[in-house]
Amino acid sequence: MAVRLLTPEGMFQPVPYHHVAVGTGTRHVHVAGQIARDGEANRIATDDIAGQVVQAMRNTARGLAGAGATFADVVRLRFFVAGWRQEQSEEFMSGLESVVEELGVPQPLPPLSVIGVDFLFEPDVLVEVEAYALLD
Fold first, then answer.
1. Residues 48-103: tens digit of each pLDDT
2. Is the N-terminal amide bond of 108 cis, ω within 30° of 0?
3. Could you tell me if 19 and 111 are in contact, meaning their C-beta atoms sit under 8 angstroms apart?
4. pLDDT in tens, 56-66
5. In the sheet that 112-117 helps form, which strands lie side by side, from edge to edge?
6. Are the beta carbons of 73 and 2 closer than 8 angstroms?
7. Residue 20 main-chain phi, psi, to 5 deg
8. What is the pairing mode between strands 74-82 and 127-135?
């Protein structure tokens, strides 16, 4: 496997993700700009962070699969959330946890960041996902 996830001793816990990923593959896969739209660009879960996380992660899985990768190959996830507030953490994690099994996302999760931004490119877009994967 091209990706090994770990959390070295002494790094803060508990968190639902590993702090470190080591990649040894030679083919880099970058999936970016994944939002809550279906294959026909229809809006999904326009005012629901959990629902937008679900759809964006499903779209990310499709992008990875198109390159021959899965979430097991992901070295890093990055989430952008418009108007992020700490009290949204539970709803965000609920959406993420609801697709872990469906999409084969490793547990604990790969290293990830949740970055609050003022807005994303359209007013109804609350969540955007990027994934970086390595393949042998």
1. 999 999 999 999 999 999 999 999 999 999 999 999 999 999 999 999 999 999 99
2. yes
3. yes
4. 999 999 999 99
5. 27-34, 127-135, 74-82, 112-117
6. yes
7. -135, 140
8. antiparallel
End-to-end CA distance of the chain: 7
Q: Whole-angstrom Cα distance, residue 13 to residue 7?
A: 9
Phi, psi of 44 (to 5 degrees): -120, 135
d(CA 15, CA 22): 18
E strand segments, 42-103: 74-82
> Checking DSSP bridges between strand 112-117 and strand 74-82, what pairing results, if any?
parallel
Residues 6+ apart with CB under 8 A from 112: 17, 76, 77, 78, 79
Q: What's 110's DSSP letter?
A: P
Kindly list the structural domains of the chain, giving each domain's residue range(s) and its CATH number in brackets, ordered by start.
3-135 (3.30.1330.40)
**Residue pointed to by tokens 């990055």:** 78
